[in-house]
Design goal:
globular, three-stranded antiparallel sheet, alpha/beta
Length: about 180
């Protein structure tokens, strides 16, 4: 569940969020996937002059003051992921051209970015297809995990943003596909 996922790797997710926020420039339009890591990215961007497009039902985060303009995709609500999916959400995403997208993964197995839900995979693929720059955000616990739906190959992203605790051999492997960014980079 979302609540369980939120409690796992909180420090790593905040670290990823700071790395991601450093890439965003004022005036950017940013597409944020649903998930606990991307929620942390939204928190890191809370005082920025940007536009955020999202299928997440947890933004703006908590009771914090939130400055970005928010555009919601609409769609069918998935309680387990606190996200919006389905044809309406996909059409909404396909009608936009964001500067940057931050896509979360439940698992990364070899070169495949994966998620357990086919409707979430479809939304993530739509996000990748319309965004100028695409960033995969995944903490070290996601690597080596395999799920039902393949979202994309790691090489389709401009960079992988992870935490500084990623093992050196794993980092080296993924650097053969894309740049690997973290606070340790």
């Amino acid at each position: 569940s979302y609540t369980e996922a939120d409690a796992i790797g909180a420090a790593e997710k905040r670290e990823i969020a700071l790395t991601a926020a450093a890439i965003v420039k004022d005036g950017d339009t940013v597409l944020l996937d649903s998930g606990t890591t991307t929620e942390q990215i939204a928190r890191a961007l809370a005082q920025r002059d940007i536009t955020i497009i999202t299928n997440s039902a947890v933004l703006p985060p908590g009771s914090m003051e939130f400055r970005p303009t928010l555009l919601f995709t609409g769609g069918i609500y998935r309680p387990a992921a606190r996200s919006m999916v389905g044809p309406q959400a996909e059409r909404s995403i396909q009608s936009m051209r964001p500067d940057k997208a931050f896509i979360a993964a439940n698992g990364v197995s070899l070169s495949h970015v994966m998620t357990p839900d086919v409707s979430e995979a479809a939304i993530k693929r739509a996000m990748i297809s319309v965004s100028k720059e695409k960033y995969l955000v995944a903490d070290r616990s996601k690597f080596g995990k395999r799920y039902l739906s393949v979202v994309a190959d790691v090489g389709e992203f401009d960079a992988l943003i992870t935490d500084s605790g990623m093992p050196p051999e794993t980092r080296k492997y993924y650097q053969t596909f894309v740049p690997v960014l973290s606070q340790a980079s």
